[in-house]
Amino acid sequence: MADIDKILIVEDDRNLLDTLKYNLRKEGYDVVTAADGAEALDICRKEKPDLIILDIMLPKVSGFEVCRILRKEMTVPILMLTAKTEEVDKVAGLEIGADDYMTKPFSMRELLARVRAMLRRADMSRLEPTGEQESLKIGDLGIDIGRHQAFCRGSQLTLTAKEYDLLVFLARNKGFVFSREKLLEKVWGYDYAGDTRTVDVHIRWLRQKIETDPAHPRNLITVRGAGYKLEG
């Protein structure tokens, strides 16, 4: 019997919290909840959820701070929820380590689709490798698939789960150009048009970690009007 994925919902709006809890449990997930940021940190450390749905505006400790703290401790996928429409708030969540975000109000169908996609990608990343151990080498960049590690100029990189997935996908397809929409499909697992800013932010953070001069990248290249590619 397969393990049941555990989801932590962190939301101070009781009605929304109950709605999310009901729908996720209906889908067969094990659900735990927290109503403020401090409680979320305690529960996350004890329960070790497989995914976190995290509101930004929380009492005691903000969702931004919760995400920042958890990213130093674990690689659990984080889907941030925000009532704000300003682009800066969306990007801020991604830049501190969230895997994706949704702006309220949102459809429950879309949220469930994102949850399924994020858990599916996380499950694939956790699978034990079978057969030959795969390794990739592109210029100064090396990736050990079996050990789930990446190195650049001899130093191990500290990557979020989604940064690692994105890097591996581009490395396996060296030299090929992928649109933002195609990367959302292949790396995030979304079979619909998501917000492509998610891809741009993760590309920017990868450049900070693998390029000697991120402002003038030599490996992770933007192809104007087409998308991104990884060169060696």
Textual characterization of the structure:
With 232 residues, the protein is an alpha/beta fold. It has two domains: 6-126, Rossmann fold (3-Layer(aba) Sandwich); 135-230, Winged helix-like DNA-binding domain superfamily/Winged helix DNA-binding domain (Arc Repressor Mutant, subunit A, Orthogonal Bundle). It is 41% helix and 20% strand. The longest helix has 19 residues, at 108-126. It starts with 5 loop residues before the first strand and ends with a strand. Mean pLDDT is 87; it is low at 127-132.
> Can you count the helices?
8
* Proportion in β-strands: 15-25%
DSSP, total strands: 11
Summed over residues and divided by their number, the pLDDT gives a mean of 87
Share of helix, binned: 40-55%
| H and E string | EHEHEHEHEHEEEEHHHEE
Distance between the termini: 43 Å
Largest sheet properties: 5 strands, parallel
Structural class of the secondary elements? alpha/beta
Residue stretches low in confidence (pLDDT < 50, at least 5 long) are 127-132
Tell me the number of structural domains.
2
CATH superfamily of the largest domain: Response regulator
- Describe the global form: globular
Rounded to the nearest angstrom, the radius of gyration is 18 Å
CATH C-level of the largest domain: Alpha Beta
Q: Give, in spatial order, the strands making up the sheet with the most strands.
A: 2-1-3-4-5
Secondary structure: elements and pairs:
Blueprint lengths: L5 E5 L3 H13 L3 E5 L2 H11 L3 E5 L7 H9 L6 E5 L4 H9 L4 E4 L4 H19 L8 E4 L2 E4 L4 E4 L2 E2 L4 H12 L7 H9 L8 H14 L9 E4 L3 E4 L2
Parallel strand pairs: 1-2, 1-3, 3-4, 4-5
Antiparallel strand pairs: 6-7, 7-8, 8-9, 10-11
